[in-house]
Amino acid sequence: MRRPIIAGNWKLNKTPLETVALIQELKPLVAESGSEVVVCPPAACLFAAKSAIAGSTIKLGAQDMYFEDTGAFTGETSAQTLFELGVEYVILGHSERRQHFAETDASVNKKVMKAIERRLKPILCVGENLEERQNGVTSEVVRSQTKLALLHVGEGNVPDIVIAYEPVWAIGTGLSATSVEAENTIREIRSTVAELYSSDTAAQIRILYGGSMKPDNMKSLMSMTNIDGGLIGGASLKASDFSQIVNFQS
Ligand code: PGA
């Protein structure tokens, strides 16, 4: 059985003080959930977030990291730094990083390898943009992104990786893929993992949906066999919305 995981991608929102306030508000609201709950605040808020989650089951995630350990890379954050800050998950290859910060499949792959080496669990984002969707190449795009990101990753590490299928046209737009569309693409991603490794490993890896997931569409998305949770942007910034998604089973 794959345990559901609901992760909040706060993007560039919340200061350290606001981070603590949101986590304090969330703590009692998510305490009874059977899902794994992860919050991913901005990097400079992780230290404050680590203290704030103490005594709860909420886990910490980062939104990105660099693939080198040290060196002349002004502005970057290493995997080891995240690990020492108490981070367990790291979002890698988010479409906003690909679009605005020149992230490529090759750099995403290097980051996935480094995250694993430093005992962080990648939340690897894949997804087609609007043009690719209109051209009917969604399946090819997500298959290729998945394969390239997992290049050289040993099978034993795969169950610790989480994949987030995020159609780019659905992120922050209020437009969401239908549950059936999301399920079909996520099934393709799972079969890509089966082709790369084995059906056993494919059955273990958790694959999330992301893109305008909210309290009003979460139940139908989460009822799909292959959808193991959500990567939530906008709706993760409000404790009431995020906790409703976390508690989708109740
Ligand atoms: P959204 O963002 O929920 O605001 O669409 C999701 C994401 O970018 O991870």
Please outline the helices and strands.
Blueprint: E1 5-9, H1 16-30, E2 36-40, H2 46-52, E3 59-62, H3 79-84, E4 89-92, H4 95-100, H5 105-117, E5 121-126, H6 130-134, H7 138-149, E6 162-165, H8 179-196, H9 199-204, E7 206-210, H10 218-222, E8 229-232, H11 239-246
Parallel strand pairs: 1-2, 1-8, 2-3, 3-4, 4-5, 5-6, 6-7, 7-8
Helix pairs in contact: 1-2, 1-11, 7-8
2-phosphoglycolic acid binds at residues 9, 166, 171-172, 210-213, 231-235.
Number of strands: 8
Are any ligands bound, and if so which?
A: 2-phosphoglycolic acid
Radius of gyration: 17 Å
Structure classification: alpha/beta
Average pLDDT figure: 97
What is the distance, rounded to the nearest whole angstrom, between the alpha carbons of the first and last residues? Answer: 19 Å
Q: Which spans have pLDDT < 50 for at least 5 consecutive residues?
A: none
Largest sheet: 8 strands, parallel, barrel
**Run of helices and strands:** EHEHEHEHHEHHEHHEHEH
Query: What's the overall geometry?
Result: globular
Strand arrangement across the biggest beta sheet: 1-2-3-4-5-6-7-8
Helix content: 40-55%
> What's the number of helices?
11
Report the sheet-strand fraction. 5-15%
Task: For the structure shown, list the relevant keywords.
250 residues; alpha/beta; 8-stranded parallel β-barrel; globular; binds 2-phosphoglycolic acid
